[in-house]
Design goal:
The complex is a heterodimer.
Chain A: H1 2-28, H2 36-49, H3 84-97, H4 106-139, E1 144-147, E2 150-152, E3 160-162, E4 168-171, H5 177-192, H6 195-208, H7 213-235, H8 240-254, H9 272-281, H10 287-305, H11 313-317, E5 322-337, E6 351-352, E7 359-362, E8 366-375, E9 382-391, E10 397-401, E11 403-405, E12 411-413, E13 416-417, E14 422-423, E15 428-429, E16 433-438, E17 444-449, H12 450-455, E18 459-473
Parallel strand pairs in A: 2-4
Antiparallel strand pairs in A: 1-2, 3-4, 5-18, 6-8, 7-8, 8-9, 9-17, 10-18, 11-12, 13-18, 14-15, 16-17
Helix pairs in contact in A: 1-2, 1-4, 2-7, 2-10, 5-7, 5-8, 6-7, 8-9
Chain B: E1 5-6, H1 8-20, E2 23-24, H2 25-35, H3 40-52, E3 56-59, E4 62-65, E5 73-74, H4 91-96, H5 104-120
Parallel strand pairs in B: 1-5
Antiparallel strand pairs in B: 2-4, 3-4
The chains are: A alpha+beta, B mainly alpha.
Chain lengths: 475, 121
């Protein structure tokens, strides 16, 4: 649950970058036909719904995984927004405020709590919406049919479309003849454009991401753009006089007057003044402008539906266009929470963990995790601990490896324990740890005294020495 | 002695009733479906509601009106205000997007824009 929540939050953050871009583009393309705008919002919607994405060098998203939470003690690199200033400031603050000594990772507790809050909010919102819809549906039960799928009801202030499979138009009673024809045309346009479906889907996505205010702004803008697109669709076929009549219909509907003959509120709930201006200024867009706007859509899709590329370790050790600019011996402490070890580790069978399931050390590029634990096949008094590495590499940075790069570029395994102590929160088990050499790929193996492991509580710490490599892109 | 108030849609229903009364409720349901577009359950609900209000009576499934057309007045819109709905957005979203009640000055400005457009095209 906590993990699902974190990935939703990451998707939300990625989408927020897209919203920013769309707002800018929307302003730039003010003269373009208004039906283009909902397409931009559609791209935002896709970003929010599709959990994976292709990697591309054209991606403009700062980071695919802005927040990372692991089952970890000790210093965490939780924020990886891709904006260094933010990461540098926020991560130490997060570390300082987390208790370091509790047996259960406080980060996991936090995410679980937030996940529950998120789900509750989402369910509340959905239930409320369903409720409102049913209530509205019931209120227009007694609506009287005008013709076809158009109904009038005294319970309607401003005209709307209701229903998904067979949408109906609901109008107030007593609309003046002159306005009636335009109001109906506008609502028909909504149906033809399937706006009732678009808004519903948009709101559904919004309820999943209800915690993100940027997306609320996006939804409100989407609604405005839909209204404008409908206006354009109607007036496209009208002459000057008719367009003026349409504008007057918009205007008179916005005057709040009481009495059956008036339509108290504008059809469509959005800014009347800007809509009228839009209508009066409307000109058929040139083919060139349309092509330009569609081109912009494609570019936005490429830039924002893809994720930034990350380099693999192979590319670095094989020095494919990368240069290693420095390496340093570094001492680190591997931290293994005792409570992740099931009893089977004290048997021959042992226990294997999932990749990244038990993280024992982490920087923003390198993750060292516990891979497996089992009884040594040489003696029952020792346990085999195997660790592996995984990487999340930007184009330049520092990584930890159990290898040393020699002058001639050759790479040799070089890793050792700093001391042979196993420490936990209360005591030191001297002489409990030993190395035995390398495993396949980057795996490192340690021998740990069985008795010490059984006796340890809380977080077990092992000090090791490895190398920190600084690399960067060539040229 | 106040005459019962009837909402506009109920008034349309009464028009059907006055034209065909006395009428079996099942036939009334059919007529309402044809002329008003009402579901059967809606018609029965309205019959019940209006009989409670004293507008009609429903005895042994025969429906007759208790008031004449002249006596009935359509309910004034004042009473309906709190039942209004903000269209297709859920109520609290509509609250965010403020209904712009244009000021008189804004109204005049926009009307001028429209008039100018009419003249110049």
């Amino acid at each position: 649950m906590g993990e699902l929540f974190v990935s939703i939050v990451n998707m939300s953050i990625s989408a927020s970058w897209v919203v920013l871009a769309v707002i800018i583009l929307r302003w730039l393309f003010g003269k373009a036909p208004k039906w283009i705008n909902p397409i931009f919002w559609g791209i935002v919607g896709l970003r929010l719904v599709i959990p994976f994405s292709m990697e591309s060098v054209y991606s403009l998203i700062p980071s695919a995984q802005s927040i990372r939470v692991n089952n970890l003690h000790g210093p965490v690199q939780m924020f990886n927004t891709g904006i260094e200033m933010i990461d540098r400031v926020v991560n130490p603050v997060v570390n300082a405020s987390l208790a370091q000594n509790s047996a259960v990772s406080p980060l996991t507790t936090w995410t679980s709590v937030l996940a529950v809050v998120w789900i509750s909010g989402m369910i509340l919102l959905m239930v409320y919406t369903l409720f409102s819809y049913l209530r509205l549906s019931q209120r227009v039960d007694t609506a009287v049919r005008l013709r076809d799928n158009i109904y009038c009801s005294e319970n309607v202030t401003s005209p709307f479309v209701l229903g998904f499979c067979r949408p109906n138009i609901y109008l107030p009673f007593g609309l003046p003849e002159k306005e009636l024809v335009y109001v109906i045309a506008h609502e028909q346009a909504h149906i033809e454009r399937r706006d009732h479906l678009t808004k519903a889907i948009g709101f559904l996505i919004l309820s999943v991401h209800w915690f993100n205010p940027v997306l609320w702004v996006a939804y409100i803008m989407l609604c405005r753009d839909i209204e404008a697109a409908c206006d354009e669709r109607v007036i496209r076929q009208l002459n000057t006089d008719q367009r003026a009549d349409y504008s007057e219909a918009l205007l008179s509907c916005s005057v709040s007057r009481r009495g059956v003959s008036a339509c108290p509120i504008a059809f469509g709930e959005q800014g009347v003044k800007s809509r009228v201006k839009n209508v009066l200024r409307y000109q058929k867009p040139t083919r060139g402008l349309i092509l330009l706007a569609m081109g912009a859509c494609v570019i936005v899709a490429i830039c924002f539906l893809t994720s930034p590329e990350t380099a693999s370790l192979d590319e670095i050790t094989e020095e494919k266009g990368y240069v290693i600019t420095g390496q340093e011996e570094i001492d680190i402490i591997l931290e293994i929470p005792k409570d992740v070890l099931p009893d089977s580790v004290y048997t021959d069978e042992g226990h294997e963990f999932e990749e990244n399931e038990v993280v024992v050390y982490q920087t923003d590029t390198t993750t060292i995790y516990l891979k497996s634990v089992q009884l040594s096949n040489e003696t029952e008094e020792q346990l085999y601990f195997a660790f592996d590495y995984s990487y999340d590499l930007p184009e330049s940075g520092k990584i930890l490896i159990p290898y040393r790069v020699k002058e001639n570029g050759a790479v040799t395994f070089d890793f050792d324990v700093r001391n042979r102590d196993l420490t936990d929160s209360m005591s030191v088990f001297a002489d409990a740890v030993a190395t035995r050499g390398q495993g396949p790929s980057e795996q490192i193996w340690l021998y740990v005294s069985t008795d010490a492991c059984k006796a340890a509580t809380g977080v077990m710490k092992i000090e090791i020495r490895c190398y920190e490599l600084t690399y960067m892109e060539e040229n | 002695m106040s005459t019962p108030k009837v909402f506009e849609s109920e008034y349309r229903f009464c028009l059907v009733l006055w034209e065909h009364e006395p009428i079996k409720s099942s036939e009334l349901v059919n007529l309402c479906r044809e002329q008003l577009g009402w579901k059967p359950t809606t018609t029965y609900t309205v019959i019940k509601r209006l009989s409670e209000r004293g507008v009609l009576k429903n005895e042994n499934t025969i429906v007759t009106a208790l008031v004449t057309k002249d006596e009935v007045q359509a309910a004034e819109i004042d009473e309906l205000v709190e039942k209004k709905f903000e269209g297709s957005l859920p109520a609290f979203i509509a609250a965010f997007t403020k209904h712009q009640r244009l000021s008189q000055r804004d109204l005049d400005e926009v009307q001028r824009m429209i008039d100018q457009y009419r003249r110049e095209g």
